[in-house]
Amino acid sequence: MSTPAISVAMSVYNGERFLAPAIESVLGQTFGDFEFLILDDGSHDRTREIVESFAARDSRIRPILRENRGLVASLNQLLAEARAPLVARMDADDICLPERFARQIAFLAGNPDHGVIGSWSEDIDENGGPYAVSGPEHPDTHEGFLTAIDHGWPLLCHPAVMYRRDLVRAVGGYHAAFRHCEDLDLWLRLATVTRLCSLPERLIRYRHYAEQVSSRHATEQQIGAAIARLAYEERRAGRPDPTGDLAALPPLDRLDALFGREGAARQVRAMVAPGLLYSRAGLSDNGFELVVDYLREGGLRAGMWRTVARLLTFGEPLRAARLAATLTLTFAA
């Protein structure tokens, strides 16, 4: 069997709703020399049936069917089984534009100093309609990528990237500790060994909907992202990365011990708290306690009284009262 130019890596769990158009968009690429690894991570809907149906029609599809182990384990298995030197990530709820692979493989061929190339995205809602997003585009130069790290801006759209397989393997692949932000941690580790950026073309339609991971695990994702940034700073300063061998991240109150200095946990709370003030999910889960601790540590009060009102509209009167009391006490202090 000849080695394909690209291994397409898709993990899916209970993805029947959007899976067929996602697969069709990969099979419809103008660059067709690829193998398509689709890993069904123990789904209990029609995912397996859909995957097997497409595999019967297109020999480029290689199904991997097994019990549920989670996304990070799935991504690392896909990386291990990929035969091609380049891996194109793809999610089961997004849509590739036909020229995506051709544009990205051409860029990597012409820029051997780059290990990862993404693309800008067209953001859509669950029905395929326009979805409004704010903020800067993903950086289209490596220098812009480093600036984005320093400012906490978006770095790459994970399902839109193509990367060099051996390079990602060399840095340890995806780390289990950074569940729900495993891609950010990987980009930050790669940033010290290769160049990364995105093509300034919208080569993927990126779907937003309530059931996706970034909506269901917003607080955990933001905490993990903040810790990944702390680990990046440790590496950049020439110090060992204390997160490198962790199977899971510790509670916030143990971060100072993990990083060997006072203030690590406080720094994480300061990075995460402002982003939770408008999040219904975050204010309803353990993100609320993080915000309270942030205020007790002298965090900025701007917008907090509006958050009290917002909690009332969210049907959280007890949390609204507690936040108001915390604001009053910290003001008096």
Automatic annotation (TrEMBL):
Record carries keyword Transferase: yes
Domain annotation Glycosyltransferase 2-like: ranges: 7-170
Coiled coil: none
Keywords in alphabetical order: Glycosyltransferase, Transferase
GO molecular function ontology, one term from the record: glycosyltransferase activity
Domain of life: Bacteria
Keyword Metal-binding: no
Xref: SUPFAM superfamilies: Nucleotide-diphospho-sugar transferases (SSF53448)
Cross-referenced Gene3D superfamilies: Spore Coat Polysaccharide Biosynthesis Protein SpsA, Chain A
Pfam families for this protein: Glycos_transf_2
Family stated for the protein in its record: Belongs to the glycosyltransferase 2 family.
Listed name of the protein: Glycosyltransferase
